[in-house]
Amino acid sequence: MNLDFFQATFLSVLQGATEFLPISSSGHLILPSLLFSWNDQGLTFDVAVHVGTLLAVVFYFRHDLRRLALAALESTIQRRNSGDSRLAWMLIVATIPAGLAGLLLGGYVEQYGRSLLVIGLSSIAFGLLLWVSDRNGTKQRALFNIDWKTALIIGFAQMLAIIPGTSRSGITMTAALFCNLDRAAAARFSFLLSIPVIGSTGLLKGLELLAEGTGTLNWMLLLYSVLISAGVAYACIHFFLQLIQRIGFLPFVIYRVLLGIGLILIAL
Predict the structure, then answer these.
(1) Helix axes 62-77 and 183-212, enclosed angle (nearest 10)
(2) Where are the domains of the chain?
């Protein structure tokens, strides 16, 4: 990890802001190397900021997670079903397709898909798809109305997030809106669904790091990066959930299209 204080701050803020907003983190994390000719931040830093964003979403939804976990246990042991237990099982159902996609296709996409052109085109295409879903969905279904078919649709849509530039949060919210969930429900389900994905990604990166050896680490800089990415991610989740019912997704769609056009122009 060869980063100074400014670089660590910039990248931590970028990771924290783009992990949960529907604007594609991969499209943004490639920008510092293009604009400033920075070297790759390294696996150690990647693990640190993933830990930060995971801490943010777990802490924000800590009460929900506790309630869902207890409800899932009750439904398993005591056969006592509720809206919370149903939601917990739907989150598990929606997680499975993305896990399979990561195991089967992750290496291939990492090798062949991480180009400016791919990221730019994906940012535009999936941004426009988000706009279509926001305009055409009825937005009449609440969070606890998700059934297994809806969970599978969102889960299979999440598989597309393996394509750089897609945005995991963006594509899951898109699928949820197409299934007629309201905006707040689509966002909350997407954020809850991110926990196993971010957790497993951080775990895999951590195992890679252990295999490579940690070397000499700047632990204070890493801790600082964890805290910054966590703080920014927490703020993004909070304000996004507060505003999304009023502002809709159009501002994010416009931003994605402009970002995609910029990346394509750079690539060409």
Answers:
(1) 90
(2) 5-267
